[in-house]
UniProtKB/TrEMBL annotation:
<dbReference type="GO" id="GO:0015937">
    <property type="term" value="P:coenzyme A biosynthetic process"/>
</dbReference>
<dbReference type="InterPro" id="IPR001977">
    <property type="entry name" value="Depp_CoAkinase"/>
</dbReference>
<keyword id="KW-0173">Coenzyme A biosynthesis</keyword>
<feature type="binding site">
    <location>
        <begin position="10"/>
        <end position="15"/>
    </location>
    <ligand>
        <name>ATP</name>
    </ligand>
</feature>
<dbReference type="GO" id="GO:0004140">
    <property type="term" value="F:dephospho-CoA kinase activity"/>
</dbReference>
<dbReference type="GO" id="GO:0005737">
    <property type="term" value="C:cytoplasm"/>
</dbReference>
<comment type="similarity">
    <text>Belongs to the CoaE family.</text>
</comment>
<comment type="function">
    <text>Catalyzes the phosphorylation of the 3'-hydroxyl group of dephosphocoenzyme A to form coenzyme A.</text>
</comment>
<dbReference type="Pfam" id="PF01121">
    <property type="entry name" value="CoaE"/>
</dbReference>
<comment type="pathway">
    <text>Cofactor biosynthesis; coenzyme A biosynthesis; CoA from (R)-pantothenate: step 5/5.</text>
</comment>
<keyword id="KW-0808">Transferase</keyword>
<keyword id="KW-0067">ATP-binding</keyword>
<dbReference type="InterPro" id="IPR027417">
    <property type="entry name" value="P-loop_NTPase"/>
</dbReference>
<protein>
    <recommendedName>
        <fullName>Dephospho-CoA kinase</fullName>
        <ecNumber>2.7.1.24</ecNumber>
    </recommendedName>
</protein>
<dbReference type="GO" id="GO:0005524">
    <property type="term" value="F:ATP binding"/>
</dbReference>
<keyword id="KW-0963">Cytoplasm</keyword>
<keyword id="KW-0418">Kinase</keyword>
Length: 194
């Protein structure tokens, strides 16, 4: 069973991902893989440097993510170049992890930009972690110390709540308590594993 997991920034997707792993799902985390494929010594990092220059490297030779972000933020063409380097490598690594999963596993692909990248149809089911936009903004301001304007910009840069809900096989509402969230994730997992 191949499952896509997504949710807007500060929706609680990482918490849901962790609960699914505890329940026995094989979790493939796109963010972790995106860091792995540009680690020092990888061809991914070499290609990023070839495309964007050595100014995107930290002193220790690792990728300086804020420096790279400053280069691609607001420049669609440069962002697409970066995505063209990272996304195929992430997909290849995810396929390796999935292929190694035991038969009958529920394999959950934790993909923040699942909606934006149009990958929903490649999964047997899509789980969307959902909260109102105002909740996302409040969480980023209170938990991450962001300004309200920065938090709103981050939400606006992603797919809309309605776009995410439109691709959902299962919706996990994360406006209640942790216990309510866990109960809902257990219900979804039981259905997926069944």
């Amino acid at each position: 069973m191949r499952v896509g997991l997504t949710g807007g920034v500060a929706s609680g997707k990482s918490t849901v991902s962790a609960v699914l792993a505890e329940l026995g799902a094989v979790v493939v985390d796109a963010d972790v893989l995106a860091r792995e494929v540009v680690a020092p010594g990888t061809d991914g990092l070499a290609e990023v440097v070839a495309a964007f220059g050595s100014s995107v490297l930290a002193e220790d030779g690792s990728l300086d993510r804020p420096a790279l972000g400053a280069v691609v933020f607001g420049d669609e063409a440069r962002r697409r170049v970066l995505e063209g380097i990272i996304h195929p490598r992430v997909r290849a690594r995810a396929a390796e992890i999935e292929a190694a999963a035991p038969a009958g596993s529920v394999v959950v692909h934790d993909i923040p930009l699942l909606t934006e990248t149009g990958q929903a149809a490649s999964f047997d089911a899509v789980v969307v972690v959902d909260v109102p936009v105002e909740t996302q903004v409040e969480r980023m301001v209170s938990l991450r110390g962001m300004t309200r304007a920065d938090a709103e910009a981050r939400v606006a840069a992603q797919a809309t709540r309605e776009e995410r809900l439109a691709i959902a096989t299962y919706v996990v509402d994360n406006t209640g308590s942790r216990e309510q969230l866990r109960t809902r994730v257990e219900e979804v997992f039981a259905d997926l594993a069944g």
